[in-house]
Amino acid sequence: MRANAGFLFAFILLLGSCSQKTGPDIVSLDSGWKFRTGDNLSWSTPAFDDSGWSTIDPKQTWEKQGYKKYDGFGWYRFKVVIPSFLREKAYIKDSIIFRLGKIDDCDQVFLNGALIGENGMTMKANSLPSADFNKIWGKWNLDRKYVLAADDPRVQWDKENVIAVRCFDFSGPGGMFSQPFEIAMIDLKDLIQIDFSGSAFVFEGDSIIRKDIVIKNLSDKNEFKGNLIIRAIRSDNSASLYLEKTGIDLTGGLTIDKQISFNTSFNRPVSLFVSFTESESGKQICDTVEVPRILTPKAPKEPRITGSKVFGVRPWSPFLFKVSATGTAPLKYTAMDCPPGLKMDEMTGVITGVLKKKGEHQVKLKVENQYGKSERYLKIVVGDLLSLTPPLGWNSWNCWGLSVSDEKVRQSANAMKSSSLIDHGWTYINIDDGWEDTRDKDGNILTNSKFTDMKALCDYVHSLGLKIGIYSSPGRKTCGGYEGSYGFEEKDVQRYALWGIDYLKYDWCSYGDIAPNPTLEQLKHPYLVMKRALRQVNRDIHYSLCQYGMGEVWTWGADVDGNSWRTTGDIEDTWESLSTIGFSQNNCSPYSAPGRWNDADMLVVGRVGWGPSLHYTRLTPEEQYTHITLWSLLASPLLIGCDLKQLDPFTLNLLTNDEVLAVNQDPLGKQAIQVKRTNDYEIWVKDLEDGTKAVGLFNKTLKPLYVPVDLKDLSLQGKLRMRDLWTQTDLGLVSGHFEMKAFAHGARLIILGHQD
Ligand code: GLA
Hints:
- It contains 13 helices and 48 strands.
- By secondary structure, it is α+β, with helices and mostly antiparallel strands.
- The protein has five domains: 5-21 and 191-291, Immunoglobulin-like; 26-186, Jelly Rolls (Sandwich); 309-382, Immunoglobulin-like, CATH 2.60.40.10; 392-649, TIM Barrel (Alpha-Beta Barrel); 674-754, Immunoglobulin-like.
- An eight-stranded parallel beta sheet has the order 37-36-35-34-33-30-29-40.
- A hairpin with a 5-residue loop joins strand 18 (270-278) and strand 19.
- Bound molecules: alpha-D-galactopyranose (GLA).
- Alpha-D-galactopyranose binds next to loops.
């Protein structure tokens, strides 16, 4: 492995060091918390005796500390002396801040019995807690920072203060987590915000990158003068691409919007660094962001057929398959030797009809435009199995959470088409939790006011050449507290078929109330009930099991007829979540097969949020390359979890690499296996139908790394052709041992094959 230390040092010097001095002392609230489940407002009072309560680590949710699967109320208490020297030593003396990590899902925070914060908002003096807890979904990811005036009577200087946190968890992990947990006087870093998140990077022509950077003074009374430095630097050769130094005067409440642009090759690594040094105190705040590298080449003008090469359908089921292709419009689609019963729409590439007999058909597809033509075979398998390649689509959960609506689903479907994702094989538009209402007198499930006409919505999505999915739970309630299917499975599926649903995500959720300590049989039971219901309707509905991997579902998901099954709990847009899930999928690998997919959960790229307000994923661009590379190798369903209406150029580029997607869609249906795992890197290998191997090299460190590859570890020998899939370039021949550079938390995806 080559040493990068010299280069890194030079890079840090060039960026300029950012001291991020915190200034005044802090009072740590890291350890010493008491906890109990349940709810009682008297637990907010300072005098309450909590000596019988358990201890808890606020940095981890309660699920991780002995309260597995506990949803509902939980209280935390902490006793702390707030010393007045904090105030005396502080640079800004007027406000004190309570930083309480994050809270899943909702919170009310009391200081000495008085309410100071609720769901992330500081509460004015004399605010009363609503007896009925203000349950707001979607706040779990919000930093809890409550700011009080230093002379607020709720603060007891130099005396013992009692902080009491009342939490409510809807489902999944609950309570306090993340960090920091501390009390401090407010500091420059709390008041000046350098924000890259308001807009995406824009790539213009062949080499211009534009970006808006917002610098905000969050204080309405304090004014800060100082120097702003903005730099863009190539992180592989330290070349300076942009440098701006300006004196700025941030008066109270001011927002400065800086628009910068610089020239560089889009596939090179660049860091953007911003610092503000306040003149009077010399204090500095800074932030840095990785400029996304654009790796996927533009699709050529000539047609190129993309997407799945094999399609499974049951006899007599309505047939719907859209041939996807890139190339300049208009494209003309032809299907040669189409079996009787099917017809191809020449303009849209949509094949419809019915096939009545089991069997296989090879259909030769042709797509033409003014620049040329592309031909490819599509294998149609009329039989028992659906989804012979992993589903490619979108799901509403990671963006909209329970705030999903008909309008948002339509917008996503429209964007799937207008963004060109549809041309790369992306097919499903899946509605997750949040569409359900109660039932009518005959037991039919009703949609809530956000979905006025589900049938019309399904028709609309189909009219675009897309398919549509829905969500339910085998329990009485879904995870979001909506009506589940328990006892109404057949009725529900009949409705789905009537509406035209093509995909069902069936999420365990409250089934735990029916089977609290489920045996394997009880784990399978509700999924078998739904299987029977699904098999009774004349419609192919992809059956997606969601029960977080319980009872090693990958070993029996096929027995209950699942087409895919979630192998893990819910993903989040962090490296910790992504890498923990992604790199722990080796056990399930042998169970992956056409129509039977291990589902590593939905994608967390683009603008996500699990509720009405969205943010750009917290994954760095290189981490996103790891995400798509790994999920493709895992042959996991790929369900985009962001708002498609707000797709930025990088995310679109990331999701439209046909050679990468072809690894996911490979008809052999094998999942990659982990052939090498060290603290620093991993290598995963996926066998492909044509006898070649797709190889993923993953750098788990925070520095660029040359990942060493020994072909014998991949069960390969001799001279092999190597192709880089992200850049779609041939890299020549390799043999024996070689190294490939991957950036921090980044990945390489290559194909290795014998010379023809
Ligand atoms: C569970 C699932 C998520 C999502 C929500 C909906 O948490 O794992 O993917 O479907 O329920 O409430």
